[in-house]
Q: What sequence folds into this?
């Protein structure tokens, strides 16, 4: 356990809300560790994981603590631990010059804030709460993850790859000539193209932990934790070929599309670097692919 400097600051922060909420805790949003205080007035990083409270084996897909840290603002969500329904409020705090998040949990089981739960089974309640939380991180048009999910999940995957000394491969995919498709066939056809690309990407998510998101506009990001560069290139090429063989039917005429991709792999021997560095490197690969003639891949 590692010592946190200035424990009094932590105690005062938590005690302020102690009587207002059922649970008050300090969380490292990237490492998912819960910080608790001891009676000897020394604060230590306790070897407990924030999502253990939710009886889960994995961190929350809709992680408001990552969102609070990333956007430097307070966010709220609803969660369920099979016994009670909680409102979770996450607020960024700075302790000893290190960014943490203060999570305050309030039992709202009997308040009616989440309606129509009377008589529901545990499984039905879990599904209702899951649907509420999933909507926040889902792109409405393509029904895969959105940019917010990228900002919250990717730092965790990068950290996990670093501490586990494992590979992580990401593929940034851009639809070639998408503006021309919109201008020629209309935005409705453009939406069809985006949906088809997202559908194809989802079909390639074969391993546990793999995910894909609409990064913005006509750009998509696929992240493959544990995959090496060879596997990443193989998947990127399969995606490129399948998309190139697709024909999108629209009212005017069939649309043929291609994509360009940048592939970047983090290896165990790589030094740690920031999220900004990661996107700089993978964007550079995508830029090279676009300028090589499109419908191509650069790694």
A:
């Amino acid at each position: 356990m590692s010592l946190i400097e200035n424990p009094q600051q932590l105690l005062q922060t938590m005690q302020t809300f102690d009587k207002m909420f059922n649970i008050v805790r300090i969380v490292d949003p990237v490492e998912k560790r819960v910080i608790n205080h001891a009676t000897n007035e020394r604060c230590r990083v306790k070897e407990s994981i924030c999502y253990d409270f939710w009886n889960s084996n994995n961190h929350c897909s809709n992680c408001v603590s990552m969102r609070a840290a990333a956007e430097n603002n307070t966010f709220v969500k609803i969660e369920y631990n099979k016994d009670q329904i909680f409102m979770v409020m996450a607020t960024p705090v700075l302790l000893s010059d290190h960014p943490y998040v203060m999570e305050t949990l309030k039992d709202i089981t009997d308040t009616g804030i989440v309606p129509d739960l009377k008589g529901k089974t545990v499984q039905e309640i879990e599904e209702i709460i899951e649907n509420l939380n999933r909507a926040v991180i889902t792109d409405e048009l393509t029904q895969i993850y959105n940019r917010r999910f990228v900002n919250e999940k990717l730092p965790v995957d990068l950290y996990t790859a670093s501490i586990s000394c494992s590979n992580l491969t990401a593929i940034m995919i851009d639809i070639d000539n998408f503006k021309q498709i919109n201008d020629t066939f209309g935005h409705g056809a453009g939406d069809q193209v985006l949906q088809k690309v997202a559908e194809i990407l989802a079909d390639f998510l074969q391993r546990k932990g793999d995910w894909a998101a609409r990064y913005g506009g006509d750009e998509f990001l696929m992240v493959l934790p544990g995959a090496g560069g060879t596997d990443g290139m193989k998947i990127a090429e399969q995606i490129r070929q399948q998309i190139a063989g697709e024909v999108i039917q629209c009212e005017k005429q069939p649309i043929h599309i291609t994509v360009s991709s940048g592939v970047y792999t983090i290896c165990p021997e790589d030094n740690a670097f920031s999220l900004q560095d990661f996107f700089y490197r993978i964007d550079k690969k995508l830029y090279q692919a676009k300028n090589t003639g499109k419908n191509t891949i650069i790694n």
Remarks:
- The CA atoms of residues 209 and 225 lie 6 Å apart.
- The longest strand covers residues 85-95.
- The mean pLDDT is 87.
- The two ends are 39 Å apart (CA to CA).
